[in-house]
């Protein structure tokens, strides 16, 4: 065969491949349009969130609200008509806040100014008469350690490092100061402190304290000290008071209590794959929430969006090739028990998970996804950006995914993990605070997020494959 004929044949194949790729892209584009139309014009996510937030309310692990939510979401998934719906038992910590907390700043002549606080999740209580002591302000754990026991013993440690204002990605700012909330009481207790007050982790300057998880590590019970979050306005006032009068004292009273462990459940629903029924793709959010608000953004939005992914697939009559599961995880907020239990059961049952997507960043306008994958898979995913750009979804980054799906990485070699990334600028105004409520969620933004998740799952279902020889997940060209 001469070179001219060979070049002609090569050109024909190239043109044919390009035509096929173009036709496939057009087909995918049409499917995505169906998904977005179904979500925006006839979606279920907002009415689901209305019930979850306004009829059930807060869902702290081990609480009555959490168990009502388990039963209700199971019933709703059964109504969708999935192939299987079941509950997966998981033991979770039961911590109760008790009576509302009280705190005040005491200045000269015993003049007091009340400030808003809330106990951090997992904290021990104060004495019934409360706790009053002098205050040492620090900007973080390293400064605490530098001061040493002599400066800390018998004092209340006030951690006052704020979220960095200059960082555009607010989760970076959150990560830069949340260690003082999580480990502050443990480190201060080692140095003889009698209590800890932590500036709320938010950019907002307001009177709303933001709770969150904390840990004592292996600190003996006798050295465990009460830990509370103070509102940002309260933190500013306390800091100013200390500058004017270093002998300022702080009083707070909390009646929170740890009550051991109780049984709860992950809620799981499944559509069985038509071609690869034994290969699983997971979509999920966490069903538990903190107790100050109703958990609409964290993570009611992720729960109903994940449920909506499977409902939308049935609504547009799409039959997935792989088995697709929605998992509503219990106990992300103060233990990650649900995520770990799901991964452990998947390993025990020798289930092959190839992809997992989590929504746990609020119900705001979706901007894109972050992916925990190798470079080759990420490049393939990036090639889909043009399909999302008509919906103003363009931020595809390589990095983290989600806390609850993270444990699957340890038991499924090469799994691709992803996290929905909404606009995060307002998220920490509501995160773990009393204003994390249904009225803070916009219907259209929530529905766009559900459609965006469904679209990614559709593309993954069509282009992902498991390379058996290397046991690495790769995407088809």
Describe this structure in words.
It is a single chain. The protein has 14 helices and 18 strands. With 477 residues, the chain is an alpha/beta fold. The protein folds into two domains: 277 residues, Zn peptidases (Aminopeptidase); 158 residues, Glucose Oxidase, domain 1 (3-Layer(bba) Sandwich). The strands form three sheets. An eight-stranded mixed beta sheet has the order 1-10-12-11-13-16-14-15, with helices on both faces. It has an eight-stranded mixed beta sheet with strand order 3-2-9-5-6-7-8-4. A two-stranded antiparallel sheet has the order 17-18. It is elongated and about 95 Å long. About 4% of the residues have low confidence.
List the helices and strands and how they pair.
Layout: H1 3-42, H2 45-56, H3 64-80, E1 84-96, E2 102-106, E3 112-114, E4 117-119, E5 131-138, H4 141-147, H5 149-152, E6 156-159, H6 170-175, H7 178-190, E7 195-199, E8 227-230, H8 232-244, E9 249-253, E10 257-271, E11 276-286, H9 296-315, E12 322-329, H10 337-348, E13 352-358, E14 366-372, H11 375-382, H12 385-388, E15 395-398, E16 416-422, H13 427-430, H14 443-463, E17 464-467, E18 472-475
Parallel strand pairs: 5-6, 6-7, 7-8, 11-12, 11-13, 13-16, 14-15
Antiparallel strand pairs: 1-10, 2-3, 2-9, 4-8, 5-9, 10-12, 14-16, 17-18
Helix pairs in contact: 1-14, 2-9, 9-14
Structure annotation, total helices:
14
Gross CATH architecture of the largest domain: 3-Layer(aba) Sandwich
Cα-to-Cα separation, first versus last residue: 30 Å
Overall pLDDT: 93
Dominant shape: elongated
Strand order of the largest sheet: 1-10-12-11-13-16-14-15
How would you sum up the major sheet? 8 strands, mixed
At the fold tier of CATH, the topology name of the largest domain is Aminopeptidase
What is the count of structural domains?
A: 2
Q: What is the SS-derived class?
A: alpha/beta
Count of individual beta strands: 18
Low-confidence segments: 11-20, 466-472
**Rg over CA atoms:** 25 Å
Give me the CATH superfamily of the largest domain: Zn peptidases
Name of the CATH class of the largest domain: Alpha Beta
Strand content: 15-25%
Question: Roughly what percent helix?
Answer: 25-40%
């Amino acid at each position: 065969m001469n070179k001219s004929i060979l070049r002609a044949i090569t050109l024909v194949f190239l043109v044919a491949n390009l035509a096929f790729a173009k036709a496939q892209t057009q087909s995918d584009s049409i499917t995505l349009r169906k998904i977005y139309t179904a979500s925006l014009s006839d979606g279920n996510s907002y009415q689901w969130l209305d019930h979850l937030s306004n009829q059930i309310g807060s869902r702290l692990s081990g609480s009555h609200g959490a168990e009502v939510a388990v039963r209700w979401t199971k019933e709703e998934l059964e109504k969708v008509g999935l192939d299987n719906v079941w509950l997966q038992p998981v033991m979770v910590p039961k911590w109760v806040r008790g009576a509302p907390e009280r705190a005040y700043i005491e200045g000269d002549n015993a003049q007091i100014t009340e400030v808003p606080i809330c106990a951090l999740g997992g904290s021990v209580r104060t004495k019934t008469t409360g706790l009053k002591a002098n205050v040492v302000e620090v900007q973080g754990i390293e400064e605490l350690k530098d001061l040493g026991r002599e400066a800390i013993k018998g004092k209340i440690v006030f951690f006052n490092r704020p979220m960095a204002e200059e960082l555009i990605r607010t989760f970076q700012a959150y990560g830069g100061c949340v260690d003082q909330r999580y480990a502050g009481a443990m480190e201060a207790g080692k140095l003889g402190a009698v209590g800890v007050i932590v500036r709320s982790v938010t950019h907002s300057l307001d009177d709303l304290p933001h709770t969150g998880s904390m840990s004592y590590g292996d600190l003996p019970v006798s050295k465990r000290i009460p830990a509370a979050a103070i509102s940002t306005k309260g933190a500013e006032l306390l800091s100013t008071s200390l500058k004017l009068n270093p002998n300022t004292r702080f009083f707070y009273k909390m009646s929170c209590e740890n009550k051991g462990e109780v049984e709860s459940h992950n809620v799981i629903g499944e559509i069985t794959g038509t071609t690869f029924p034994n290969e699983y793709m997971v979509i999920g959010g966490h069903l538990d929430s903190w107790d100050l608000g109703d958990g609409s953004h964290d993570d009611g939005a992720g729960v109903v969006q994940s449920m909506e992914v499977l409902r939308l697939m049935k609504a547009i009559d799409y039959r997935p090739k792989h088995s697709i599961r929605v998992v509503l995880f219990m106990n992300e907020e103060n233990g990650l028990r649900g995520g770990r239990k799901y991964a452990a059961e998947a390993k025990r049952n020798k289930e092959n998970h190839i992809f997992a997507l989590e929504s746990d960043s609020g119900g705001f306008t979706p901007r894109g996804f972050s992916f925990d994958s190798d470079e080759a898979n990420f490049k393939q995913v990036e090639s889909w950006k043009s399909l999302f750009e008509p919906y103003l979804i363009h931020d595809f980054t390589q990095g983290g995914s989600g806390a609850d799906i993270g444990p699957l990485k340890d038991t499924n070699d090469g799994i691709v993990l992803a996290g929905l990334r909404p606009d995060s600028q307002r998220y920490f105004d509501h995160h773990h605070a009393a204003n994390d409520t249904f009225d803070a969620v916009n219907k259209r933004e929530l529905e766009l997020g559900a459609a965006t998740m469904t679209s990614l799952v559709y593309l993954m279902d069509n282009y992902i494959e498991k390379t058996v020889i290397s046991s690495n997940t790769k995407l088809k060209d």
